[in-house]
Amino acid sequence: MRLKLSNIRIPVCANPNVKNQVCRQYHIDGKDLQDFKILRQAVDARKKNHVLYDFQVAVTLPDKYQSLLKETGVSECKPDMEVTYPEWKGTHRPIVVGFGPSGMFAALYLARCKANPIIIERGEKIEDRKRSVNEFLYNKLLNANSNVQFGEGGAGTFSDGKLNTNVHSEYNQFVLDEFYKHGASEDVTYMQNPHVGTDYLEKVVRNIRLEIESLGGEFYFNTTFTDFEQKDHALHITCHNGKTFTTEHLLLGLGHSARDTIKQLFARGLKMEPKPFSMGVRIEHQQRRINRMQYGEAAKILPPASYKGVVHLKERSVYTFCMCPGGTVMASTSEHNTIVTNGMSEHKRDKANANSALLVNVTPEDFYRESPLDGLDYQEKYEKMAFEVAGDYRAPGNLVGEFLQGKIAKMYRSVKPSYPHGLVYCDFERCLPKYVVDSLREA
């Protein structure tokens, strides 16, 4: 019988022996323990003087252990979800526009269904894209079509690679397993807060592309989808470089930054509606302080710590997002003369600083005037204002102490900023709406 055993709690140590703890806790003969698999690993640091690992495992045991089912934290394991791949029957090959997460998994599934999908991506394949990203980070030479936001793998490729969602879906484990199969470390399949790391993500997205190609998928990089026409029961696709395609099935995995494509689709008559988003800043701290705050003395043994927080104010919410332990604040611009920041960590998360987005919710009432696309112009307005603070790609910045006092810092103190182009210390009202700045300060 296959059982799920929960509440396996072990004091933090360098190499916890989970199997031994399972045998002791549930009085199981080690010889009877088969098909042992860790389903979940978390850290319980509520008591800083007694930090624990918390495991959930699956094991196969002989029927003589049937009585275990009466114990707390023990249940029968449900069978793993079986993904089926029915053979494609369409007249034309399906087309996927964009090779970020949604396009990547759609194309992978279609390829396994023998659909021979065509993938159109405005950016470069990862090997070339990495060179373009470095040209901007080190030389401020921006490729507007292939950068931290555009290219193979999407914006997530140059990020911490966190695989978290608040959605409880049977497909979650499928996604985690696919990342592991294509080059991520095995712990992404069971860690409470799994992360891949930018250095591993490069391998993962390349390996997924190679599988798709081996199954008959075809990629067109450096190719921007520009228009379509519905004719003769099919869609006729046009790209900026003159390439054309015909299909009956088109998936648009554009991401949120392909403003030109979104505007073209809207002009074509596709129904769109304004949606909320968030604006704010990146906040950096010394990682060792976050470790100590979260884990106490156990920080000497445990990997770099993360955090998350939210404050609900009278009219707004302020929350952290995409927290990157031991990471870097990235220059994530995709349009010339704008400033956009994001966070990134490599697999080891071994840099000196932690960073996180600190965001304020923005509603359609804040920007909607005439068009559902007014939010795009609203975002672009403040990205350009941020660039104008310095007149180059240095980012507006401040220190928390001065910010809370309504002052402007002159230079950094204990935390050396990791943003590659440097900072210009200023009043954030020069590049963010006043309600965002006020909300950040109050939170």
Distance between the termini: 51 Å
* Rg: 25 Å
The helix-strand sequence is EHEEEEHEHHHEEEEEHEHEEEEEHHEHEH
Mean pLDDT: 95
Shape: globular
Largest sheet: 4 strands, antiparallel
Q: How many DSSP-defined strands? A: 19
Unreliable segments of 5+ consecutive residues: none
**Helix share bin:** 25-40%
Q: Structural class, please?
A: alpha+beta
Give me the side-by-side strand order of the main sheet: 2-3-1-4
Number of continuous helical runs = 11
Proportion of residues in β-strands: 15-25%
What do these coordinates show?
- The chain has helices at residues 18-26, 101-112, 126-139, 171-181, 198-214, 259-267, 287-295, 364-367, 374-390, 400-404, 434-442; strands at residues 2-11, 34-44, 52-60, 74-76, 95-97, 118-120, 218-220, 225-231, 234-239, 244-247, 250-252, 277-286, 310-312, 317-324, 328-331, 341-344, 353-362, 395-397, 423-425.
- The chain has 443 residues and is α+β, with helices and mostly antiparallel strands.
- It has a four-stranded antiparallel beta sheet, covered by helices on one side. It has a four-stranded parallel beta sheet with strand order 7-6-5-11, with helices on one face.
